[in-house]
Every structure is written in C-alpha cells, then in structure tokens.
Write the structure tokens for this entry.
Amino acid sequence: MTRTRARAVRIGVPVLAATTQGAVLVAGGLLITHPPAGWWDPGERGLVAWLAAHRTAALTGASDWLSALAFTPAVVTVTALAAVALLVGRRWRGAALLSGAVALQAALFVAAAHLVDRARPDVVRLDGALPTSSFPSGHVGAATALYGGLGLLLLRPGHGWRRVVCALLWAVPVLVAASRLYRGMHHPTDVVAGALNGAAALWVVSRTLPARQRHRTGPAAPVRGPVALVYNPVGVDDALLERLHAVVTAHGHHPPRLLPGSAEDSGRAAAERAVAGGARLVAACGGDGTVTACADALAGTDAALAVVPCGTGNLLARNLGLPADPADALAAALGGHARRIDLMRAEGDGLPARAAATMAGMGLDAAVMASTHRGLKRRLGWPAYLLGAIRHLGDRQFALTVRVDGGPPVRRHVRMAVVGNVGTLQGGVRLLPDAVPDDGLLDLVLVQPQGLRGWGAALVGLVTGTRRPGPAAPLEHFRGHRIELTADRARPRECDGDPVGDGRVLALSVRPDALLVRLPGTVRDTPLEGAGAARTEAGRETA
C-alpha cells in the first residue's frame, strides 16, 4: 500500500464511521417521529406522564443535580480538566479519546436534533423550553461519552478500587437518563438514542486512534539461561504468579523458579539464592522495596534484573518505560534488551549502608511515606500518599546543610530534600528533570517554597519542568557523584519509598553501571529519560 493510499485510509475510515453513525442516528429519529402505518407504539407518553405526576421535592432536587452533571458547562469543564491531567501524565491517547468522543457526539447530536426536530413531551417540563429538540438526548450522550470514557480509562485489571470507581462513573449516564425523563425533557427513545450516540462516539474514536505502541520483542538480545521470580507474597497472589509463569514459558524458557521474599530483607536473600543457583534473569515482582533488594543482590554480577511492578509507587518501572501491568512488563523485559544502569548507596547516622535504586529523601516526603498506612496503599495505590501529604503540608521548614562532591557547604531552609537516580514521579511529574539512571550522576532538588505563592510556583515548576535559578527559588537543583544532607536535628528519612528512621544525616553516593536490567524495545529505540548530559552510550549496551 502506498503512503498516499495509507493516509487516505487513515482519514477515510474514521470519516466514514462517523458519517454512518450520524446517518443511523438521524434515520432512527425520523423513523420514530414519522412511523410507518402499523408501527408499534412503545407507550412513551404514559411513562413520562406518570413520572411527572409523581414528582417530589427530594426527587426534583436530585434530578436537578444529576442533570447539572451533563449540562454543557460541566461537560466542557470536566473534559478539559481530565484531558489536561492525562496530558500531564503523558497519556495523550486517553486525552484524545475523551476529547474526541465528547466532541463527536456533540456534533452528531446537533445535526440530528436539527434534522429530526422532535417535540418534547407534553408535560410540565422542569427545565423550560430548551433551544434544541427532544431527539436525541444531548445530556445522556455527553454523559455517556465523558463519564463512560473516564471509566474505561480508569479500569485496569487487579485494582479493586478502580473497578468500584469505574462502576460509579458508568452509573452516571443511567442516572442522568432517569433525571431527564423525570424532568419531562425527553421521551424514553430519546435517552436511549443519546446513550447509543455517546457509546458509538467512544467506539469510533477509540478505533480511529493509533493503537497503543507495544514494546518490540526483537530477538537481538534474548535471555539465556534459567529465570527466577522473586516475589513479595503480600502483594503477589497465586493468580498473578500463574500469569507471570505463563509469560516466561511463552517466551521459550523452562518454568521459572519461584522464590518468595521475606519481610526481613524484602527478597534480597531470595535473589542471592537465585543467582547462586545459576539464574541469568531475576524478575523482581513487588514494589520498589522488593526491586531495590533484588537490585542490591544482583549488583556487580552478570545476572540481569527484570522489574515487574506489583507495588504502590513502582518508580523504577515507570522511569524505565515498562508497562504498568505486571505480565506486560515481564513480557517487555523478556523480549527487550539488557543495559547497565546506576544504583545509589545510602548511609547516615543510625542508617547502615544500603542500596537505593530510585530516590531517597529527608523531610516532607519521608514523613508522608511513614504516615501512610500499608492497607490504605494496597486499596488506593499511590493516591494514598496524597492523603498523607495533606496532613503534612503544615510542617515547618527546617535548616539543612548540603555538600556536593566534598565542595563548600550550602545552607538552606527547606520542606524536603530529594536525591534521585531517576526523575519521574507518578502521573509523569518530573521532580528531577535532569536525572538519568545511567549517567553516573545523582540529582538533588530542594523544595523550599515560601507561602501559598511559593507553593504555586513550585507546582507550576513540577508540571512544566521550568526552573527559577538561585537560592530563593521554590525548587533548587544540584548534581554530583556524592551528595550529603545534614539537618539541624533528626528528621524523617526514606529510601525508595521505605521509611528508614529519623536522623540528621543522609548521604548518597552513585554506583555507576552497577546493575544490568532488562528494558523494553530494541537497543536503538529505547533512550532512557532525562534532559541532563548523559555519558556516551558507547560500550554501555549489553546484549
């Protein structure tokens, strides 16, 4: 197929699908308003009249609130906010799906309402005389496209709370339809047509958008040798283990060795046993604590680590570009390539030397980690940290001395200090814009906003990646091979999301090229994130 023809197909198919949707919608409306002789009467007038005769103050108030959810100002506002949030999280396909579906159903609603021009029910209408006709229901169409689309984007396997929220979102169009009938604004067939219009718009736009890019599974860098799965038994159940087992065997390997990690060392001993037993690939199935423990055990060896995100934060998996689903992440690692990245060594007063793979910090972030209950994290995922953050936003700044690579001390008053080997948080927020996990450097950000205006500037900087230089900036950045933080008194500390006890000192040193990890894609198409001056890639890629 030539490029011109392929382009014509990409443009023509969605246009044809949308045109067909509009034609079916109009034809259905004309068939209802101008029925052939002997057409079956569904008894719509009776239902609307009965609802109008049984109105109560409570039901009228509820219907008013439900209808407001699907009025144009609310739909436009919610769609815009959701699209911006999705774009910030680098989910452009989700933003396009939501915006496109809402826009398509609106365009077809306007056209059908004009061509069909159906009179509204002959009852007392609580919303007065609206400028559009009764068929189809624009409120129901907009609610189906918007809230139905949000439910689709939120729904993921293995997250019970997501299913609950998804069910609530999908209930909104049904409740809006009931409210429109109750308020005497539509016939039953109008709300059915509106729901079908919104659902069809979602389907057409989803089929139009380019398919989500799958990670390449080229054979250039296959895994050679036994595979072991080290897993956190609290976060990984038998069903997930079976899925991961199937992924390994589907890639041509012998059944993997299954090794549960212990609470005492988060799986380090299990990973060491796997390497001692000849494993060439160890898949760390858990949160960042399990991943770091396995990474520490594999550091300096030729065995590779596959990160299988099964925890709350999963920061390393996010920064390595791995899929969020555990089975997809393992498949991407097995079909991808191997590459060496850096690790961090963390130590301080009362803190024995330990490994860190993503970030370590002192102050607000560590206090939030320590105060967020494990059960809440299991139920809500990373949004549970937001609840903890609200409780600690009033914490005072503290005096901190920073020393980078043994240089002169820098004294600041901060809310928190974070040192990272990677830079991206949940939602795609770049806390450390220059951080690259294979550049041989560590990045530090001091969060030091002054008042509400300072917090606003800090949030803008996090979302946009812009910076203000100087010690008065709400976000101040440093880079180096060794970063020492010394507080005025003992403060909360964390490493890779795990609280490590209060202390005055937290020192981080880089361990260049310490760990061999499996990354998705081929060697040439998988740049690691970060805008800093990364070292040359020559000699750093390992088949």
Remarks:
- The longest helix spans residues 3-33.
- Confidence is low (pLDDT under 50) at residues 1-9, 211-220, 530-543.
